[in-house]
Design goal:
The structure is a homodimer. By secondary structure, the first copy, chain A, is mainly α. Chain A has 3 domains: about 70 residues, Orthogonal Bundle (Arc Repressor Mutant, subunit A), CATH 1.10.10; about 60 residues, Orthogonal Bundle (Arc Repressor Mutant, subunit A), CATH 1.10.10.10; about 140 residues, GntR ligand-binding domain-like (Four Helix Bundle (Hemerythrin (Met), subunit A), Up-down Bundle). Chain A has a 3-stranded antiparallel sheet with strand order 3-5-4. In chain A, α7 crosses α11, α8 runs antiparallel to α10 and α8 packs antiparallel against α12. The longest helix of chain A has 23 residues. The first copy, chain A, is globular. Chains A and B meet through α6, α7 and α11 of A and α6, α7 and α11 of B. Chain A binds a DNA duplex (30 and 30 nucleotides) through α1, α3, α5 and α6.
Chain lengths: ~300, ~300
DNA sequence: TTAATGTCTTTTATCGTGAAAAAACAGTTT
DNA sequence: AAACTGTTTTTTCACGATAAAAGACATTAA
């Protein structure tokens, strides 16, 4: 097996959902843009839809024949990228404990264990290395640096520097900038979530990321924007891993975000500074408490 | 051809230089540590040295028979890593002009042009992407963002934030920290270089990097330390590219470094701040003047 | 009994290959 | 003519294979 057709499968599933809404599908190029894939993939999708009797396809005419059922969809797990599969698998091992700092990472073993080629694992590790959790020994193995207290502190230190700057830049944006409308929209979403926090608390994670990314974008600095990838990745797995008091934590965070948004809208730099600082401090605290007391570092 | 033996060749060359200094070589493991390679490679080196009559090798006895001549060395270009070759080639194209922002990068074409496999090019591009000069379109090609004025400004903005912090942390280090000795050594090297600036000005680049890395290490933050890789990479090629007033520029920079070192040693945060700021400002200026006026950005 | 050498095994670095997906080209329809 | 469909070419993605290099194990010398 050379390359999985997950792009096709994922796009196919998304296309199925489109079928509910219309009587006939748009042109091939239009569908390509809609689904974010090439026309080649669109045509494969259409071909299968015709085969399974979902649509009648003749040149421009693509008429919907029936509503898609549950079996028409490809299984979720077949729509993931190899990179996603490897990352998930790797992070599970990393967070599941037994991953001592200083431990060496074996490409071949990882590849075999996950059931993929070594090239994909190598490429993943190279991409992943920018998160600061692993390091390469020249001409030799990778070394795990570990998800330690030190890591969390270094990460949050930079995060705080960057976010304070971005927040200040955000507040200084002219009032006709479109970001204010984005902020209003996010504020409304926060209010909505706050009112339904008891049942929807687990949706905060995604809102959190969108909110902070909006702020970081105001820095107009690619290094600051890109650094948020590190934070997002860590928080993503952290949220999945640490479910203790999740509801309470998220409720507090929503409140902090609302105060932060309020401060931004006031454009008062002092207030922005204070609100931002308060939120970042509690975010750091949350992250730190989830990290087990570090064992003694190994001799390298 | 599957893998070049540049590790062996490079280590061989370095080992030849060792031959001048002694009558007999140390044990295999010791040599391995000295050269930074495995014993397997050491044995290949010894085998060849025996073959070419450089040494007599019998178990522990490795006696030098003759001084190595110029032809004993492997050609310099055969000792480079593939990664280095690709990087150089890529940077040449990037800096040689004709590399408009927005242009797409073709892995296959690059690989063919350099004469290497696509895997190596892919891995290079992934590693290189953290420098912020290129970006990947999902499931598709890479896009060149260009070595523009905006890039230089974003880079220097972060550099300045990080270095000011690191410098302050450095100055706060206890006097029994070994870094002060390192600083003294670097200061002496600066003085020496200053006195011979007319002929050795091109050696500044390397000294510059060592000096700044020493300071950044005081931050004890892997993200700050790692970020210096971006700066080092840019300055490395910048130094090679922009030879205008090289001597003058470096002479000024050496002076600034010496003032900066002086300030650090005084441990006076105000002085450190001022000296650091002055140097970073002129470094930014130097970088900016070397970038051609940016053309209008392309429509994406 | 420690530390070296000699030998064998495992892992990394790199390539060529082939399927998936994108992109380019050519011919049609409106 | 503009936008679409049909067809062909090119590029990306991922694999298995192989030489270089590292590492582990067994043996021998000091």
């Amino acid at each position: 097996m050379s390359k999985s057709n997950n792009v096709y499968k994922d796009a196919y599933n998304r296309c199925l959902r489109l079928l509910d809404e219309t009587r006939s599908l748009p042109s091939e190029p239009e569908l390509g843009i809609l689904l974010g894939v090439s026309r080649t993939t669109v045509r494969s999708i259409l071909a299968r839809m015709e085969e399974t009797g979902l649509i009648a396809w003749n040149k421009r005419a693509k008429t919907v024949l029936r509503e898609p059922g549950a079996d028409d969809f490809f299984p979720e797990e077949e729509t993931d990228t190899l990179a996603q599969i490897i990352e998930r698998s790797f992070m599970r091992r990393l967070l599941a404990g037994g991953a001592e700092a200083g431990m060496q990472i074996n490409e071949l073993e990882l590849a075999r264990e996950i059931g993929v080629g070594t090239t994909s694992v190598r490429e993943f590790l190279i991409r992943f290395s920018r998160f600061g959790l692993i390091e390469k020994r020249r001409n030799s193995h990778w070394v795990l640096k570990g998800f330690t207290r030190a890591f969390a502190l270094e990460l949050t230190e930079i995060r705080e520097i960057f976010e304070m700057r971005s927040a200040a830049a955000f507040a200084a944006l002219p009032s006709d900038s479109p970001v204010w409308a984005d902020l209003d929209r996010l504020e409304a979403e926060h209010h909505l979530l706050a009112s339904q926090i008891a049942t929807r608390f687990n949706e905060f994670s995604e809102l959190d990321e969108r909110f902070h990314r909006l702020i970081h974008r105001a820095s107009h600095n690619r290094f600051i924007v890109d650094f948020y990838d590190v934070i997002a990745m860590i928080f993503h797995y952290h949220y999945q891993w640490n479910k203790a008091q999740e509801r309470e934590r998220n409720e507090v965070a929503v409140g902090e975000h609302l105060a932060y948004i309020e401060a931004l809208k006031s454009r008062d730099l002092g207030k922005v500074d204070a609100a931002c600082r308060r939120h970042l401090k509690s975010a750091r605290q949350t992250l730190l408490t989830s990290i087990p007391e570090s064992r003694l570092p190994m001799k390298s």
